[in-house]
Amino acid sequence: MKLTILGCYSATPRTFTNPTSQVLEIQNHLFLIDCGEGTQVQLRKYKVKFSRINHIFISHLHGDHFFGLPGLISTFRLLGREKELHIYGPKGIKEAVTLFLKLGDSWTNYPLIFHELESKESELIMEDSKVSVQTIPLEHRVYTNGFLFKEKESPRTLDVEAAQRYGVDRSQFNNIKKGHDALDENGKLIPNKKLTHDPPKPKSYAFCSDTVYNESIVPLIKGVDAVYHESTFLETEVHLCDRTKHSTAKQAAQIAKSAKVDQLILGHYSTRYKSIELFREEALTVFPKVELADDGKVFDF
């Protein structure tokens, strides 16, 4: 599982910082999460293949999280895309994007499929044999979701040495791989678990976009490998959180601690501060493993 940060600052783009967008590579999927202005430039800069993006997840309809989407959709058309593109986002995203395309007479020549979200409860929105994605309801000034990406457990793999040790004939190997028990040379039943390796622990990643401090998300993200949580402010500006519906670095760390996650990644920094290191310092007073998102940074889990 690999996460590439394309942009992670709040509000407006600057010459050296970009608004929110990131790419998650998991089980051969390349998921684009949010799409602020400049996303397609960042995709090129960090050599992310446009053709591998088939699913885009938009947390909410504030400009710094989706204004790059119409341009990216149009670029896919110019590049001759033929594959389906699935877009998951709040109700209204289809109207917003298709209005751009209509006024610019730029309809796609590939299937553009919108999955509009309205539920204030967590719901499964995408699933295949290897991965699932569900929403994380957040509390912001407009309807907002985070997203929880989870690998499914891999099948157990054959332990050839164990099979030989128990005297299991090779003719049974295919059935063992399918999960069946086996018989040794004396006809004794050998449980499948003794003949196979445990699969690796499935990995998970939680993206928590713009939100006020909200403990209700803790059960949803319990024990994930990594959580990205917005940290727009430091505690010196905590009084701004209720009005703007944002969080501080300390509050993000409290969420990570309560959820017992392995790693916290901070982002969505207000540009009022001189250094993003201040966010890490504040979060470390609550939670021990804190990373800072920054444009172009890559995390491997």
Give structural notes.
By secondary structure, the chain is of the alpha/beta class. Helix content is 23%, strand content 27%. It contains ten helices and 18 strands. The chain has helices at residues 39-45, 63-66, 69-78, 93-103, 160-165, 173-177, 218-221, 241-244, 249-259, 277-284; strands spanning 2-7, 21-26, 29-33, 53-57, 85-90, 112-117, 124-127, 131-138, 144-151, 157-158, 182-183, 189-190, 196-197, 204-208, 226-230, 264-267, 290-292, 298-300. It has a seven-stranded mixed beta sheet with strand order 6-5-4-3-2-1-18. A seven-stranded mixed beta sheet has the order 7-8-9-14-15-16-17, covered by helices on one side. Helix 9 (249-259) packs across helix 10. The longest helix is centred in the first third of the chain and has 11 residues, at 93-103. It starts with a strand and ends with a strand. The mean pLDDT is 96.
Mean pLDDT: 96
Question: Low-confidence parts, pLDDT < 50 over ≥5 residues?
Answer: none
Helix count equals 10
Radius of gyration: 22 Å
Helix proportion range: 10-25%
Question: How do you describe this structure in short?
Answer:
The chain is an alpha/beta fold and 301 residues long.
